[in-house]
User: Fold these one by one.
Assistant:
Number 1:
Amino acid sequence: MNPNPSPTYSSSTPAPGPGPSPRVVICDDEPHITLAVSLKLRKAGYEVEAHADGLSAWQSIFALPPALIVTDCQMPRMSGLDLLRSMRAEPRTASVPAIMLTGKGFELSSAEMQAELGPLRLFPKPFSPRELLDAVSALTVPPRA
């Protein structure tokens, strides 16, 4: 195991309006994907926490379950599939909805994945940031305007 944890980035922008914004954890080992998704969601008013691997994301998710997770499928230290399996096995995180980003969308069946991993939406790369935001909005309580 790598003794140096992956960097974690959190939004310092306050949520619009009164009350907390939904917290979304993003997990992808491609920095340009993490940055693009983080910026899109922060601009829409979500609190965003980003991780470069599944293990650091799991540690954060276990400590404080988010409203939603957006994860890549293949990553170092813990894959997105293993991350979701860990989440579903833990009662505190079992019902957290998830979006999986994958370059292997053609190999994954949405129905099979949902049967094994619960609430899940698949987004093959490349994906539309607008469509991703629409999916995040549908799966979370909308941020306050």
Number 2:
Amino acid sequence: MNETVRLSFSGTDLSSRTYGQEQRLILEKLLQNGDKVTIDLRNIESISHSFADELFAVLYSKVGEKTFSEKINFIVKSEDLVQVISDSIRYRCNLQSV
């Protein structure tokens, strides 16, 4: 399709590995279609590490750094959210390299 799709979440707190997995499967389908995805986190106040791991870190490990950085953009209002996402990706990458 090669569109830019905006993905946003209801509520202000993102938690649970199960919800993260559901959202990751949606993202994977969009990426397989060739779409770019903008993830809108402006209304999000907190993200649990389990959600961030299941959605962002697992996705990063599946699609690789190049696809992740070229196809996914974030809109955030809090650097704390960026830190949780970055930490989750870094932790998963370190686990895989051991």
Number 3:
Amino acid sequence: MQNTDMFKEQYEKFIALITKVVKNISLYRLSIYGNQGSILTDVPLAAALVVVGILIIFVPKLTAISALFALFKQIKVEIT
């Protein structure tokens, strides 16, 4: 019984955290900067998460290649 109570408590905390993030997600922006510090893109975080989620589901290889490209090009990703 004790394990189920602990699990239920942790689950409720997790759901509360997710609810809080979803309610406030429109306040955050995703900015991607190039090598010289120029802004490549600046979009709302919610839109970025939707696009990344779709890419991961439908085109996982393209997502992996894009992540490697970003790593080698040394771009800076910032959530503000």
